[in-house]
């Protein structure tokens, strides 16, 4: 484990829907669901999920993420990690549910599931068709169903509605999900009601990635250290899950 940023060369950058795929010249032994802290001088440091052992999916929405998305081959980025607990694959038929850039760790997971000979189905969602990400990568190893808020591609509506229907039509040994926390709470409630095992990658603001600062506290759990992947039943026991989180200043905010 690397506990300080090490500068690593960029091998390539390409846009894929709502994310930019940042490829590095070095590999980091990692599991789907784990993350690394990426750093740029004068722009700061944030956690990003692994897309593969040498790739990250970046949604360019803030100063740091826009800086990462603007890098070119030969540039350097600070990396420390991998950190956290990843997903654990179970059974023979699995269902992956991703909202927005939450599809990034799930694309990594889908590839690993295919290697194990599992039947993989993915439900992915975004506000509009242009923001649906990693479709080709997912389609190479899974059956993919898309949802968009505005109906510009696939089913109009939310991934949670598609999840309800999917669990009626077929049996799945486990559901895996990543996305906004409000979405994850609904996924957890749906799966627990159906008695389907479910693992969720929680999303909280992280500053250190090491379990030191406490910024990513979730009712006694530290998402960076104890997660980010948790069992759905465990997260539903936490009152703030899907309802409130801590802002950068430490103030509790409603999700």
Provide a short characterization of the protein structure.
By secondary structure, the chain is an alpha/beta fold.
Structural domains: how many: 2
Helix content: 10-25%
The gyration radius over C-alpha positions equals 17 Å
CATH topology of the largest domain: Rossmann fold
Tell me the CATH architecture of the largest domain. Answer: 3-Layer(aba) Sandwich
Mean pLDDT: 93
Order of helices and strands: EEEEEHEEHEHEEHEHEEEHEHEE
- List the uncertain runs: none
How much of the polypeptide forms β-strand, as a percent range?
Answer: 25-35%
Structural class: alpha/beta
Just give the CATH class of the largest domain: Alpha Beta
Furnish the topology, listing elements before pairings.
Layout: E1 6-16, E2 19-24, E3 35-40, E4 44-52, E5 55-58, H1 63-69, E6 76-83, E7 93-99, H2 103-115, E8 119-126, H3 135-139, E9 143-148, E10 155-156, H4 159-169, E11 174-178, H5 181-194, E12 198-201, E13 217-218, E14 221-222, H6 223-226, E15 229-231, H7 232-236, E16 244-246, E17 252-254
Parallel strand pairs: 7-8, 7-11, 8-9, 9-10, 11-12
Antiparallel strand pairs: 1-2, 1-6, 2-5, 3-4, 3-6, 4-5, 12-15, 13-14, 16-17
Helix pairs in contact: 4-5
């Amino acid at each position: 484990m690397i506990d300080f940023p090490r500068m690593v060369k960029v091998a390539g950058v390409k846009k894929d829907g709502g994310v930019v795929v940042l490829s590095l010249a070095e590999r980091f032994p990692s599991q789907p669901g784990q993350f690394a802290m990426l750093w740029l001088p004068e722009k700061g440091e944030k956690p990003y999920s692994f897309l593969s052992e040498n790739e990250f999916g970046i949604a360019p929405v803030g100063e740091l993420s826009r800086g990462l998305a603007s890098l070119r081959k030969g540039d350097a980025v600070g990396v420390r990690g991998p950190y956290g607990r990843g997903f654990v694959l179970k059974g023979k038929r699995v269902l992956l549910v991703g909202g927005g850039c939450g599809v990034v760790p799930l694309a990594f997971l889908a590839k690993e599931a295919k290697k194990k000979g599992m039947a993989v189905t993915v439900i992915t969602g975004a506000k509009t068709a242009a923001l649906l990400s990693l479709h080709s990568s997912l389609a190479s190893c899974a059956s993919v169903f898309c949802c968009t808020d505005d109906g510009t591609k696939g089913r109009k509506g939310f991934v949670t509605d598609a999840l309800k229907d999917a669990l009626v039509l077929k049996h799945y040994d486990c559901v895996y999900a990543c996305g906004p926390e409000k979405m994850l709470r609904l996924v957890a409630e749906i799966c627990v009601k159906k008695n389907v095992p479910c693992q969720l990658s929680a999303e909280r603001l992280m500053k250190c990635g090491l379990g030191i600062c406490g910024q990513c506290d979730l009712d006694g759990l530290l998402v960076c250290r104890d997660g980010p992947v948790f069992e759905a039943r465990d997260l539903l026991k936490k009152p703030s899950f899907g309802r409130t989180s801590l802002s950068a200043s430490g103030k509790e905010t409603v999700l």
